[in-house]
Amino acid sequence: MMMRRLAICAAVLFICACSAAGPDYQRIDPSMPDRFSSLEPEMISEAAAAGNTPEAWWKAFDDPVLDMLMEQAVSGSPDLQVATARVRQARALRGIASSKYLPEGNVTAEYQHQRRTESGLSGTASGISPSGDFNDRQSDLYQAGFDASWEIDIFGALRREVEAADAQLAVYEEARKDTLIALRGEVGRNYMELRALQLRLDIAGEDILSRQKIVALNRIRYESGLINELELARATGALANAESTVPALERSVHEVMHRLAVLSGLQPSSLVQELSRPADLPQVPEHLLVGLPSDLLQRRSDIRKAERELAASTARIGISTAELFPRFSLTGAFGYLNSKPDNLMTERSNFWNIGPALRWNIVNLKRILNTIEAGKAERDGLLARYHQQILIGLEEVENALVGISREKIRTASLHKAVNANRLSTQLAESRYIAGLENYLSVIDAQLALRTSQDLLALSRRNLAIAFISLYKALGGGN
């Protein structure tokens, strides 16, 4: 009869050991569209259908300075170093969780000088009195040994802890990748901003040079009595207005240079000399490698991070649920105890004990149940956030695609406007020099040319930034 009961108990424990307490995590992905609706046919490359989205998207610009900045940022960014340290911390915490599968113990060594009562009772913490002459109330006590305990994970509490630690480690790994993607996107955006500002400075310089020639010509004509002072004043004022735009642009250029240096973990002025060398604003490729919307689930680190947070939360529900069941452990100790150090390490001085232990927090049932309920609420919230993150990813890709397609149209129109306004300015200046046109026509033509050139530079910058936003939204650069 006893053997039968033992067999039943063993079977129950085996069944419990096969399944951990709490819900098992199951990933639930929402349905995804078949394609991005904002992806126009002329924007697709042949490799797009295979989902070959490039990781190193900045290579498409074929800009060695940008390549250098990307390498410098990865090696020196403080933000990335912080994220890497958090990964190391999470990896160590995962090791702590898995170490609970192993026995835990302590090696102890102790010496006490004690005084007994007249009846011979000892005040030692161990409750063990050494043998000896009771007439001598004072004695020495030497003890050495070790104790250990090993928790038997019957209901899976330890397994859930390791599962949660694994998921949390993945969370920090994805957070580091997300930091890297954001860092590269920020470097790319600031670099395009820098080249656009430098281009606008060149345009301002050409405009100033053109106006200086007109002022010089007008001064000669005024001194010759061919024009009145009003036309000279107008030309001089237009030149001053053009010159006034330069300091603000130069200030912005230095601010962007400083930002690029700090992103790389350098002193703000470290890159000024290198970035001051003239270079054109990089051209955006005609075709895009986009892939499918479903690829975002695997490519975007923020989506993977949200999914791993959900998995960790589900595992923590299991940890709380395991508190409803008893926890079993095996404890033991072995050591030597004697009043004389010469006799300490002898067989007569040794002692040992071993036995099972049980701990059950059933008295705290209400607290445990509420902890489980709080965990479920957290899990449900993280599930909603996971689905929301997917929607945000889709939205960012669609917005970037719209930005690229519309900015390309705008850039083409501005190219036409610049060409037309350049011709108009040349004709206005020629007619003014020939005395066939008044100076107001020249001012209007120059202003229109400068405005269209400036807008074209901004449009090219916006197009490049939209390209960066697209591949950042696709999860590239991790």
Describe the protein's architecture and organization.
60% of the residues lie in helices and 10% in strands. It has two domains: 18-101 and 155-324 and 367-473, Outer membrane efflux proteins (OEP), CATH 1.20.1600; 103-152 and 326-359, Outer membrane efflux proteins (OEP) (Single Sheet). It has a four-stranded antiparallel β-sheet, with no helix packed on it. It is built from ten helices and four strands, in the order αααββαααααββαα. The longest helix has 69 residues, at 365-433. Helix 9 packs antiparallel against helix 10 (439-473). It has 478 residues and is an alpha+beta fold. It is elongated.
Tertiary shape:
elongated
Number of strands: 4
The helical percent reads 55-70%
- Find the structural class using helix and strand composition: alpha+beta
Number of domains: 2
Mean pLDDT: 84
Termini Cα gap = 64 Å
Spatial sequence of strands, sheet with the most strands: 1-2-3-4
CATH superfamily of the largest domain: Outer membrane efflux proteins (OEP)
Backbone CA Rg: 38 Å
CATH fold topology of the largest domain? Outer membrane efflux proteins (OEP)
Unreliably modeled segments: 5-16, 46-51, 124-134
Broad CATH class of the largest domain: Mainly Alpha
Hey, roughly how much beta strand do the residues contain? 5-15%
Taking the sheet with the most strands, its summary is: 4 strands, antiparallel
Pattern of helices and strands: HHHEEHHHHHEEHH
